[in-house]
């Protein structure tokens, strides 16, 4: 049914949520801005700049210039990148690795579709540098999820029509992006939040039943 699978990275292939949280929290604390896990959940799948805007909502967001915002986003990213150095091949679960290998062995093309500009570094850290057939990430897009650009670019890089691609997502913004791009989508995580997805994965390897049926 599908010729390719396009995976979101953060929250699907590996888990960087806690590092994003710690880095945003450090910035928010320094600025004396309230930040908690609930706000952090709203940042999933959203670009760095848009995330900063969400954090600054109702605080001093409107009073800051673009270059001040750039500076703050960079400050967060420097903390975040330092934390990513803690990641290694142990942060890739056996189930994810095995599922990817089985799909690949069956001739399915595999791509990444992530809003992150750190996707390449994260993949290298978890031992998947050079593994995917295509990587579409925060560096090749101008509009982040829920815009479909990142997934459409992935299907273009793979040279596989979007109708033949399945997107795997953990965030509502990502499911919305897949739908906006006219692609089928499998959600992994909170079923209520991802209710618009075509399939729901209880476990990552449920993907095999969907793609290889
Ligand atoms: C992913 C994460 C988001 C993050 C975005 C940008 O989509 O789920 O939480 O804001 O990437 O990440 P970056 O590494 O470029 O700051
Ligand atoms: Mg995600």
Automatic annotation (TrEMBL):
User: What taxonomic ancestry is recorded?
Assistant: Bacteria, Bacillati, Bacillota, Clostridia, Lachnospirales
Q: Which residues bind substrate?
A: 8-10, 24, 43-48, 51, 76, 114-118, 145
Q: Which domain of life is it from?
A: Bacteria
The active site of this protein is located at 8, 10
Cofactor(s) in the UniProt record: Mg(2+)
Q: Name the UniProt key words of this record, in alphabetical order.
A: Carbohydrate metabolism, Isomerase, Magnesium, Metal-binding, Phosphoprotein
EC annotation from Swiss-Prot or TrEMBL: 5.4.2.6
The processes (GO biological process) annotated in the record are: carbohydrate metabolic process
Q: Which protein are we looking at?
A: Beta-phosphoglucomutase
GO terms, molecular function: beta-phosphoglucomutase activity; magnesium ion binding
Task: Kindly list the positions annotated as binding Mg(2+).
Answer: 8, 10, 169-170
Residues the record marks as site: Important for catalytic activity and assists the phosphoryl transfer reaction to Asp8 by balancing charge and orienting the reacting groups: 114, 145
Membership in a protein family: Belongs to the HAD-like hydrolase superfamily. CbbY/CbbZ/Gph/YieH family.
Q: How are cofactors bound according to the entry's free-text note?
A: Binds 2 magnesium ions per subunit.
UniProt catalytic activity: beta-D-glucose 1-phosphate = beta-D-glucose 6-phosphate
